[in-house]
Design goal:
The complex is a heterodimer of chains A (about 600) and B (about 550).
Chain A (H helix, E strand, L loop, with lengths): L1 E3 L3 H6 L57 E2 L3 E6 L4 E6 L5 E5 L4 E6 L5 E6 L4 E8 L2 E8 L6 E4 L5 E5 L16 E6 L6 E6 L6 E4 L5 E6 L2 E6 L7 E2 L2 E2 L33 H6 L5 E5 L24 E4 L5 E5 L5 E6 L4 E6 L6 E4 L5 E6 L4 E6 L2 H4 L5 E4 L7 E4 L5 E5 L7 E6 L6 E5 L4 E6 L6 E5 L13 H7 L2 E6 L4 E6 L4 E6 L5 E8 L4 E8 L4 E6 L4 E7 L4 E6 L5 E6 L5 E5 L1 H5 L4
Parallel strand pairs in A: 13-17
Antiparallel strand pairs in A: 1-20, 2-3, 3-4, 4-5, 6-7, 7-8, 8-9, 10-11, 11-12, 12-13, 14-15, 15-16, 16-18, 19-23, 20-21, 21-22, 22-23, 24-25, 25-26, 26-27, 28-29, 29-30, 30-31, 32-33, 33-34, 34-35, 36-37, 37-38, 38-39, 40-41, 41-42, 42-43
Chain B lengths: L4 E3 L3 H4 L2 E2 L5 E2 L13 E2 L3 E2 L2 E3 L2 E6 L4 E6 L6 E6 L4 E6 L6 E5 L14 E5 L6 E4 L6 E4 L5 E5 L15 E6 L10 E4 L7 E6 L3 E3 L2 E3 L1 E6 L2 E6 L8 E4 L11 E7 L4 E6 L4 E9 L10 E9 L4 E7 L6 E6 L4 E5 L6 E5 L6 E9 L2 E11 L9 E6 L3 H4 L4 E5 L4 E7 L4 E6 L8 E5 L4 E5 L9 E2 L5 E4 L6 E6 L4 E6 L6 E4 L9 E6 L5 E6 L9 E4 L13
Antiparallel strand pairs in B: 1-24, 2-5, 3-4, 6-7, 7-8, 8-9, 10-11, 11-12, 12-13, 14-15, 15-16, 16-17, 18-21, 19-20, 21-22, 22-23, 24-25, 25-26, 26-27, 28-29, 29-30, 30-31, 32-33, 33-34, 34-35, 36-37, 37-38, 38-39, 40-41, 41-42, 42-43, 44-45, 45-46, 46-47
The chains are: A mainly beta (about 600), B mainly beta (about 550).
Chain lengths: ~600, ~550
């Protein structure tokens, strides 16, 4: 589980489009997240804007799925229709559509992973509707929400959900309300229940323990811990602060540790003298502070480990819900929060940590330091207790600031989204293969590991300029043309696929056999979806009738849905094995077919 | 008309009465003048052509007359049918004629008679199915298995109460019984059926089905004729708040994709109805589910045509208003738009070569078929790789005169155009589809009422009121004409029975019936036979009735 808060606000200030943080499941990050990952995630979303900075390299970016899109349950796909106060429930196997009346102005909608169950926020009536579909009929129950609520997170077991106000979404807070309200839903057919709680300021994400027993609300003030079994009624949920509020001084011994991490030579592309790099390692500093009891902010920490930044950029939670690990953009401090004892441990990474990924099993994290070309493998929680156990690898001369861990935790892909590098490093985290470099033909925008850890998708940036300009080199033409690469790290194989338009949302099916990538360029009437066979890297492009806006897998039907922009509502389903495509347009009309 | 599809004809044409006469007075001494039995009208419905001759139906006399024209002299058979017959049609693939009668309400001295569908078999007495309500329209499936009788809006109902959404489906292969016909009331959203169209056989769950599409304003109703015990499916074309009346104009079936394409007046969309297997068959429910797609089709789509197979299946749409053709992938709704140089309202698919391509390939001619299209050019569209090549596959050919009427002759690789301007280059143009050249043909007649011979070899025309019939041999476009002894009101081609000569019948306006039979293989005045009086042969023979 993790939260990646990239510099969306900063990018906005710079006049770029919103760049979304990556989809956890699709990007091969932590084990769980605030909303159902990959399989029914509705795909991920980003835009093509690339921030331009006046000086210094920009931060690494990850991308985040859009929220207001169709969502897939096990068999049915749910689409909210604010104009008619309905939700269209689409049977992915028969294309039958049921139009279900909910509250006023339904907007954000999320499904329970693997189940034909959806929650939709009715912004016009400050309620939430819970839809359960079985045998083509949907039953709706309604519970109170709160003004301004715009985001939902569902626990992995589907027994609870959290409704909150995500201030990073467009229009957040404009209708009033509090940035500190949440509603916890207890989901049980016939007995749905909503409890309103108050948490820290500006929730940015909601993480869950893998067993669904607890939620962790990441706010600017810290992490609010919800133990569902203990919630009996409205209350204040105290924070575990993540910031270092310096209200006094009391130096503590900092038991700094050092570790000369191994750096492996690449079989494919040598990466320099590992031992030399290791000698350059600065010692890690570590410290542990007592986190105050609730409402107690009198924190005294070792001055050398104080991080003046208030809100962590990255927060991940181990699957068992015991620990959270966090970093701040521009900070060298890694923090481990024991969510049971409410204590924080920290280590000094020796340089600004530009990315941090927690393994799927939560046993280790990988931190990347772009300036130092350094990778730290940090055992969790051991690395914070015994810094010597942190393994450092310096890859001198290589440019990378982001990391994507394979879901099986055996490999990490190192790359940069901020600089014009055309290499991806494949680091073996468990064997003796060391690190190898793979050349990609374009600069990198995002990397997504397939769920089976065998392959990965690399989404590329597009350089400005006309790719058809006469006289330009092949490389310039490639740079100016949108595209993506398919990567099989174990085979050290990369295939570049150029596209007619820039890439939109994508989805990788649960088994990792296929990926679907959307492309659209409305001005040029391009509305394509690429079906990628990740076993052969064969790509089939299909043109759609209207601009695609979302994609997601419907596991029970072994299809993906492609939501499209159409005034009457349009969605296409693609069988991921055969590629057979079926579309349905006009949700309301379809819902009124009397069978 | 496209393969497996049909345009919905106006209601009048099919049931137009042939007013042969007005009133024939019977013996005034036997009946009072106001006794309905004292007068009999000889007006008949339009005669129906069968392989042996013609069948006339007299609504007022409750009589059908079958005129056998196979011999040297005609023979006449008479059959009683229900009173107030309103429609007569051939049962597809047979020489049987179906006569739909509205029955008799009853009046003093006259007992009520139920509405019926009479089947005039080639031999034996008619089979009579009681349909119950005074329907006025009949449609027959392509395999001749089912007759679908319904109400089509027109004229006075002549009933105190009438349910216009009631229909009756007659299984013509089964004898009349309690369950045959099946009577149903079609679910209504305020409209009434305007036509019924049948799908070709469609495989659903391994069983070949015929789906009846009952067309109403702004909605259609689908009925599975193989399972009439199951309910119908109603598909709206507009939302309830939409004030538009969308009257379906064209329905096209796609057995391969199990899809129905529908074009409606006042709509710029093409509606694609898909029949997918239902997850489970509910009791009394269908085992297929219908979903609908709306696909933008330019302004005022006027014709639909299907081409390609498998993944290459595409729908070609011609839109007169926006002067464009659209190629639609019905699976993905992806659209390729080709702007046309000339306005067109019809599409004709054909296989052939082109002046720049010696290979036989799928092509389309997009042409104007009506004067109000205001176009004097046609467009050829090569359909292979159309999505990639788009307008590169387009060629415009000037006809140089506004088209008033078009008669496609795809079997002959030509299209005949009729123009308004007949002053210089002739009234007709003959367009060669492969050479993409036009040749003028001088003509004094309109093609609007032209008739093909059954073998499509000759095209017959008969200027109304003239005693001459003209023909064009479509093999070499050699024209000819024959003078008959009386003015001609209509020309009919008789279906050709195996081994029989092809015959064409010219009808003459005459009270008691008059016609000329021409040898369509070698039309000559000398071999033409004239028959008259067959409708009045038993006029005074009350017992025969």
């Amino acid at each position: 589980m993790r939260v990646k808060r990239n510099l969306m606000a900063q990018l906005r200030r710079l006049g770029t489009h919103a760049v979304f943080v990556g989809v956890c499941g699709l990007l091969g990050c932590g084990p769980s997240r605030s909303s159902p990952p990959s399989a029914n995630d509705g795909g991920s979303s980003w835009d093509s804007g690339v921030a331009m900075f006046d000086s210094g390299p920009p931060p690494e970016t990850e991308e985040r799925r859009s929220f207001l899109e169709p969502r897939a349950g096990g068999r049915y796909v749910y689409v909210s229709n604010p104009a008619r106060d309905t939700v269209a429930v689409i049977d992915s196997t028969t294309l039958a559509i049921e139009s279900v009346e909910v509250g006023r102005r339904p907007s954000a909608l999320l499904t329970v992973e693997g189940r034909d169950e959806a929650i939709v926020l009715n912004t016009g009536s400050n309620t939430a509707s819970i839809l359960r579909t079985s045998a083509g009929r949907t039953v709706v129950s309604q519970v109170p929400s709160f003004q301004g609520a715009n985001a939902i997170a569902v626990a992995p077991d589907g027994a609870h959900a959290v409704i909150y106000l995500d201030s990073e979404l467009d229009g957040a807070g404009s209708s009033g309300g509090s940035f500190q309200d949440i509603v916890v839903l207890t989901l049980a057919p016939g007995m749905d229940r909503a409890v309103r709680l108050t948490v820290g300021f500006r929730p940015v994400n909601v993480l869950f323990a893998r067993d669904g027993s607890a939620a962790f609300i990441v706010t600017e003030d810290g992490i609010s811990i919800l133990r569902f079994a203990e919630i009996t009624g409205p209350s204040i949920v105290p924070n575990v602060s993540l910031s270092d509020v310096r209200v006094g001084e009391g130096p503590e011994d900092s038991d700094a540790g050092t570790d000369a991490g191994d750096v492996d030579a690449s079989d494919a592309t040598p990466l320099g003298d590992a031992s030399e790099d290791a000698d350059d390692a600065a010692p890690f500093e570590a410290g542990t502070v007592d986190v105050p009891t609730p409402r107690d902010t009198s924190v005294i920490v070792d001055g050398s480990l104080v991080d003046p930044r208030e809100t962590p950029t990255d927060v991940s939670v181990t699957p068992d819900g015991r620990y959270a690990i966090a970093r701040n953009e521009g900070s060298r401090i890694l923090r481990l929060i024991d969510l049971r004892t409410r204590t924080i441990s920290r280590i000094d990474a020796g340089g600004d940590v530009t990315d941090l990924d927690l393994s799927a099993d939560g046993t280790f994290a990988v931190a990347v330091l772009r300036e130092q070309s350094r990778v730290l493998r940090v055992p969790v929680p051991g690395g914070f207790m015994a810094p010597a156990s942190v393994r450092r690898t310096d890859l001198r001369g290589e440019v990378f600031g982001s990391v994507s861990l394979a879901p099986d935790g055996r490999r990490a892909l190192l790359f940069t989204t901020a600089l014009d590098a055309r290499r991806i490093l494949v680091m073996d985290l468990v064997g003796a293969d060391g690190t190898i470099a793979l050349t990609v033909r374009k600069t990198v925008r995002a990397v997504a590991y397939a769920p089976d850890s065998r392959t990965a998708l690399v989404l590329h940036r597009v350089a400005t300029g006309d790719p058809n300009e006469r006289g330009i080199s092949l490389q310039t033409m490639i740079d100016r043309t949108p595209g993506y690469s398919m990567l099989e790290p174990s085979a050290r194989f990369v295939k570049l696929q150029l596209t007619r338009a820039d890439l939109g949302p994508f989805a990788i099916v649960p088994g990792g056999t296929h990926a679907f990538l959307l492309q659209r360029a409305d001005a040029r009437a391009i509305a394509d979806v690429d079906r990628v066979d990740l076993r052969s890297f064969v790509v089939t492009t299909t043109s759609l009738g209207s601009p695609p806006s979302s994609v997601g897998a419907v596991p029970a039907a072994r299809r993906v849905f492609v939501g499209q922009q159409h005034p009457e509502g349009r969605i296409s389903f693609i069988d991921w094995e055969s590629g057979e495509l079926q579309s349905v347009t006009g949700f309301e009309l379809n819902a009124r077919v009397v069978q | 008309m496209n393969i497996h599809g049909m345009r919905i004809l106006g209601s009048i044409k099919r049931r137009a009465l042939v007013a042969l006469t007005t009133v024939t007075a019977l013996s005034a001494t036997q009946c009072r003048p106001d006794d309905p039995r004292s007068t009999q009208r000889l007006s008949t419905l339009a005669p129906v052509a069968i392989s042996t001759g013609l069948v006339y139906v007299s609504p007022d006399r409750a009589r059908a007359v079958r005129v056998n024209l196979t011999g040297a002299t005609p023979t006449v058979e008479r059959f009683r049918v229900g009173p107030a017959a309103v429609a007569s049609v051939v049962r597809t693939g047979t020489d049987e004629v179906l006569v739909l009668s509205q029955g008799e309400r009853g009046s003093p001295g006259i007992a009520p008679v139920a509405a019926t569908l009479s089947v005039l078999a080639a031999s034996g007495p008619p089979r009579v199915y009681t349909v119950g309500s005074p329907f006025n329209a009949i449609s027959v499936t392509a395999d001749g298995r089912f007759a679908f009788v319904h109400f089509r809006p027109s004229g006075a109902l002549q009933r105190l109460l009438f349910n216009p959404n009631e229909v009756a489906i007659v299984d013509l292969q089964s004898a009349p019984s309690e369950g045959n016909p099946v009577r149903r009331t079609v679910r209504s959203f305020g409209g009434i059926p305007t036509d019924v169209i049948f799908s070709p056989p469609v495989a659903i769950r391994g069983e070949m089905r015929t789906i009846a599409v009952v067309v109403s304003s702004s909605y259609v109703t689908l009925m599975d004729l193989a399972h009439l015990d199951r309910g119908e499916t109603s598909v709206r074309l507009t939302l309830p708040e939409d004030p538009r009346d969308l009257n379906p104009q064209q329905v096209l079936f796609d057995s391969e994709l199990r899809a129905i394409y529908l074009r409606a007046a006042a709509s710029n969309d093409v509606y694609v109805l898909r029949l997918d297997d239902a997850g489970a068959t509910p009791a009394m429910g269908n085992d297929f589910r219908v979903s609908i797609n709306q696909v933008g089709a330019g302004q005022g789509p006027t014709d639909l045509a299907l081409f390609g197979e498998g993944e290459g299946r595409r729908l070609l749409v011609v839109s007169r208003g926006s002067r464009e053709a659209r190629v639609i992938d019905p699976r993905s709704n992806a659209i390729t738009t080709i702007a046309l140089d000339a306005r067109a309202d019809r599409a004709l698919l054909f296989q052939g070569r082109s002046p720049r391509d010696p290979m036989t390939a799928r092509r389309a001619l997009l042409y104007p078929s009506r004067a109000d299209t205001g176009s004097s050019a046609v467009s050829f569209l090569d359909l292979d790789a159309i999505e990639a090549r788009s307008s590169q596959n387009l060629e415009t050919v000037q006809l140089r005169r506004t088209v008033r009427f078009a008669l496609p002759l795809p079997e002959r690789g030509t299209v005949l155009f009729e123009h308004d301007d007949a002053s210089t280059a002739g009234r007709l143009s003959l367009l060669d589809l492969q050479g993409r050249t036009t040749a003028p043909i001088l003509a004094e007649v309109s093609l609007a009422d032209a008739r093909f011979s059954t073998d499509q070899r000759l095209l017959w025309v008969a200027p109304n009121g003239s005693p001459r019939v003209g023909f064009v041999d479509l093999r070499d476009f050699h024209p000819g004409e024959i003078r008959l002894d009386a003015p001609v009101s209509e020309v009919l081609s008789l279906p050709t029975a195996m081994g029989s000569p092809a015959r064409v019948v010219a009808l003459h306006p005459a009270t008691a019936g008059s016609l000329s039979v021409l040898n369509a293989d070698n039309p000559q005045r000398e071999t033409t036979r004239v028959f008259t009086g067959y409708l009045a042969a038993d006029l005074l023979d009350q017992e025969a009735q």
